[in-house]
Amino acid sequence: MKTLAGVIAAIVLLAFGTTFVLASVQRADASACVVDPSQLPPEGIEGWKGDQLVNAGLIMDAATQLQLGKDAQIIGVMTAMGEASLNNIGYGDYETGGVLNPDGSPTSSVGLFQQQEW
Predict the structure, then answer these.
(1) Which of 64, 71, 109, 114 qualifies as a cystine partner to 92, CB 3.0-4.6 A?
(2) Collapsing DSSP states into helix, strand and coil, what is residue 100?
């Protein structure tokens, strides 16, 4: 139940956007929580559901494993919300629109954070 409360709290914080998060900065030593995907509500949270919530949980768990605090969890989830709507995208802009990098190489942005291979 504590894990579910942590996930809900993180998603609610993220839903209010950057302004709210910046206004309520956590202490650097604030502990992060671990997410149990089996405890996620099937009906979703604030419009996010299914794999999106699982992906948010995986990001939060990765931050915890790296011994990062709640701020890192929030920033990671917010980034994935903005870059890929919490969907693990397996294709980049080149495949869908022929977009090229400044050096002329095809873009290869994939995943939750839309990272490029180069």
Answers:
(1) 109
(2) strand
Q: What tokens appear for 64 in the block?
A: 């915890």
Q: Contact, 64 vs 32, CB < 8 A?
A: yes
Provide the β-strand partners of residue 89: 111
**What residues contact residue 31 under an 8 Å CB cut-off, 6+ apart?**
69, 70
54, 56, 105 from 45: Cα distances, Å: 12, 11, 39
Helix and strand numbers (H, E) in the chain are 5, 0
pLDDT in tens, 80-112: 999 999 999 888 777 788 888 888 888 888 889
Structural domain spans, the chain: 2-87, 88-118
In degrees, rounded to 5, the angle at the alpha carbon of residue 55 between the alpha carbons of residues 9 and 12 is: 20
